[in-house]
Amino acid sequence: xxxxxxxxxxxxxxxxxxxxxxxxxxxxxxxxxxxxxxxxxxxxxxxxxxxxxxxxxxxxxxxxxxxxxxxxxxxxxxxxxxxxxxxxxxxxxxxxxxxxxxxxxxxxxxxxxxxxxxxxxxxxxxxxxxxxxxxxxxxxxxxxxxx
Length: 147
What we know:
By secondary structure, the chain is mainly alpha-helical. Helices cover about 70% and strands about 5% of the residues.
């Protein structure tokens, strides 16, 4: 796994690294709650890893909706081999639930704002059509009576 190549961005490299982790480790593929300090275990197993890219990849993974959903209901954390290594505290479950709720609320607000904007656009277009229609009617009426 060569993650030290010069790549366009850390973000792309982090995504590539995360895909490699998902291929190699079931805990990443299945979005199991990771044991605390898993970054250190990854560096021991894969010493060539760039720490900045590793932190970014882990951040992407642990902030994903699938991971947060698992954390919100989980009771155990897992190591790279898939062995339970500790428990998920109520604080961590609550934190994951709050983040999920915030994301759902933000998504709903964005959706509602978009729908409101689309409705306003439709109303504006309808009003413009009605004005054009009335103008055409008036034009037709006065062009006939003026003849």
